[in-house]
Structure prediction request, 106 residues.
Amino acid sequence: MIFTNAWKDLRLNDPSKAKTFWKTFRHGFCHTGMPFERSQGGKALPKVRFASHFLWQPEFRVEAGQELICLDPWKFINHVMDKYRADPTLLTQHPNAPLLAIHVFG
Prediction:
């Protein structure tokens, strides 16, 4: 379900790309502070390019035989934060994250 929601939200043309994005970014940043380059099985993940001329939406490309995910991280952060600003209850809906309720948007 998470990948179906991510696929729709990120407006990707292939649901499997949501899973690749999740592995590269969510797992990478939450566990190491940077995008992962390999999955747990050792399979290569796309390289990441950050630049202000990219969109908030991840763009999957192949350049010189290398798969890339291109993204403006600040635009992506704003995209996500706009969702929480529009509906702060999203932060408190998961029972495993009870402390998120203490944050108040100003």
User: Anything to note?
Assistant: The CA atoms of residues 30 and 36 lie 10 Å apart. The chain has one domain: 2-102.
